[in-house]
Model the fold of this input.
Amino acid sequence: MDVMTDRVNAAIDLLTTMVVESVAKEDGRDASDVLPIFLRSRTGQMLYDESSKLWWDGPAFIEEQYRQELAHGH
Done:
């Protein structure tokens, strides 16, 4: 891996942490319970697909997209 790929992966990991912690806090749940659900979600998988560029949109947008996914049962 090159340095840029490492930086993108680190940014994606940080965004995941931020989204999961926010969801857990707002929903009164443990982040350790939210994390595997988020990672299996369509949003979580898109976030880790660098080509989707979802990671460019920031944690608030990603969280909103995740919540919409949950609300629509995807």
Observations:
- The mean pLDDT is 94.
